[in-house]
Amino acid sequence: MNNTPPPYKAFSHEGEYFVYDTSNCVFFHIDEPTYDFLNLCLEYQFECAKKKFVEFNKYDDVTCESVFREVELLGKNGLFNIPGYSITDEVFEKQLEERYNSAWNKLELSLSEGCNLACKYCYCSTCRDIPSKGLMTENVARQAITWLFAMSGKSEQVSITFFGGEPLLNKPVLRFAIEYSQKLAKLHRKKVFYSMTTNGTLLNDEVIGYIKRYNFGLMVSLDGPKELHDNQCPTQSGEGSYDMAVAGIKKLMARRRSVTVRCTMIHPLPRMLDLIKFYEDFGFTRIVMGKATNPINPSGVDCDQSDIDEYFRQDKEELIPWMLEKLKRGETPKYFPYASFIKNQEEGKVSSKVSPFKCGACRGTMTVGADGTLYPCHRFVGMRAWQLGSMETGPNYDKCKDFWRKYRNATKVKCEKCWMWTQCKGPCPWEIASGDGSFNNKVYFCNHIEHGLKNAVALLFKKNQCI
Questions:
Q1: 443-466 vs 305-314: helix crossing angle, rounded to 10
Q2: Residue 63: pLDDT above 60?
Q3: CA dist 85 to 65, 222, 284, 417, 446, Å?
Q4: What crossing angle do the helices spanning 305-314 and 272-282 adopt, rounded to 10°?
Q5: Which end of the chain is flanked by fewer CB atoms within 10 Å, N or C?
Q6: 5 pLDDT band (50/70/90 cuts)?
């Protein structure tokens, strides 16, 4: 079976026309005649396509000749080249071996498998089939950090992410992990990069001191104004958590200028622009907005297709115009999910190299559970079918490899011959995971990604028009 993508993809979006060169990973803005002709070229040889195009009697001779010249120029620059990448089973197995025969310099520590909040959309209570192991001990943290440095080879830096539940429920082991990793860093002459996600309710001067001193990568969870946040994120006793979260976040902001917020939106989708303006006024420097999803046990608050449709309606009618207005004034929008795509396109930082590995699962995002059990990432903690060994014995590399073999088997028919593959790189493993340790690729993901990618391309074009 041929899993090679087509040489290009011509598409229309929001009344504009574009073509994506799959060999060079570049988008071009084109006109409607060129769009029509390029679609013909996918069906017929070039000279035959020219005859068919003229026979349409849709465009005059001058337009036809202009289109032919433009497409010939694009062709000389590689538009008709068949992409030089394809992942055969042999290539995949070779890359899989290389993945687990190289230095390992990232690890996530689930300091606490519990949380002081009971967010309505939290997947932990509905997906886990193993009871919470509570708080990580110093011994488990020591084993994990010692192993990480031992496996880091010649890497100049190692990365440790503190996760939960709520990681700050376990401040003593957070303190220990930082002090112990700094001791090993000095011994091995390496640097340590720390990151953490927290709900903010337990931030204090000591923790903020660590965050500031070691320049943590940091994300705080806050789901919006008081009424909205308290409704979505009550405490374990059922009370609102907004005031506690705000107190901690404000204390953090008094000592650190750059703070990223993560908002989780539930069904029915709220007006996103109202949320963005709230976060701007609050003082956050970057805004991340996600939709509640639970592939294992969906709940009534999870976003469904109607929410995805509403998301794209708001994006088109409200958010993109808002982003463009910011860009016109020379500002970078604090909510700007298209930032990386636009920067890479404008700076030519695109690559036709592809990997069968969507992310760092079973590698850079390998997560150590509170009892030392290993999981592909923090999303899988507490799920028996997705265990990958333990810190006492080390990762089970056969299980790590099987994770990606199963993922590829579930995605390759759709993904590896798709024109979007070098942009999308496939679905998040968690979003297509099942509780029994298998994957089930879902069509909605593809539709969602394609719409978002086309929005990004249209925004890039409009940005260049207005600036």
A1: 0
A2: yes
A3: 33, 42, 41, 10, 21
A4: 60
A5: N
A6: confident
